[in-house]
Amino acid sequence: MNTKDTLAPLLVVGIAAGLSMAPVFPFQAVRYTSATDGGTMNSGAHVAEGQISTSTMTAPGQVNDTSPTNRTFYINVVEFEGTANISEEPFPNSTLPAGGGYELNPPDEQGNWEVETYVFDPSQIVVYEGDQVTLNILGVNGDVHDVSVNGYVEQFELHRGELKTVTFTADRAGTIDFICSIHQPTMHGQIMVLPRG
User: Fold this and answer.
1) Residue 96: its pLDDT value, please?
2) Cβ atoms of 169 and 132 closer than 8 Å
3) Which of 2, 68, 170, 179 has the fewest Cβ atoms surrounding its Cβ within 10 A?
């Protein structure tokens, strides 16, 4: 077994682990070269045979200068639902948090039960201080949601099938919460505003 055979599974595991995490900046690219195939996993500067090199790359949408920009996002209001039958899965003997974001329905006369939750998708967004942010929020599931963007947008109703657009300037670094007051604690998103410069 050569070094390339050993590194490939480690790289796949590393990439999979990286994809399951929240957005992290800056991204890094990994290059590997081999005398046997002469190939690289990423084009760029020369890397000695069998050597791994990392280089910082600009993340998609990442700002390279200090000027504010317009950022547009599309957010869906969705419901995840799971169903089972007590003949295959017992009904859970637990209590979910109150607030309307979770619902656990007991078995019906056929033994079918379900669990539901409402969420924003995506629920985490990254922008830079000074950016103009436009959120296009689509009501997919649930007949109504009371949505607000704390400190920036007054609460508004969003109905299934409606697309509401709100625009504001992220004028300070920190975190901006967007929530649905009807479906807590699960319908809670965050806009992370990174300092510019």
Assistant:
1) 94
2) yes
3) 2
Domain assignment of residue 50, yes or no:
yes
CA 136 – CA 152 distance, rounded (Å):
15
With beta carbons less than 8 A apart as the criterion, state whether 32 and 4 touch.
yes
Phi, psi angles (nearest 5°) of residue 191: -105, 115
Q: Determine the structural domain holding residue 38 and report its residue range.
A: 3-57
Q: Tell whether 115 and 185 lie within a shared domain.
A: yes
Mean pLDDT by 10 residues, the chain (197 residues): 43 38 35 35 39 43 69 97 96 93 96 97 97 97 96 96 97 97 97 93
Query: CA-to-CA distance for 56 and 66, rounded, in angstroms?
Result: 18
Residue 165 in any domain: the answer is yes
- Token pair for 69: 């920009």
Rounded to two decimals, the pTM is 0.66
Residue 63 lies in a domain: no
29 within 8 A of 54, measured Cβ to Cβ: yes
CB 182 within 8 A of CB 146: yes
Integer Cα distance of 129 and 170 in angstroms: 6
Same domain, 43 and 84: no
Domains held by the chain: number = 2
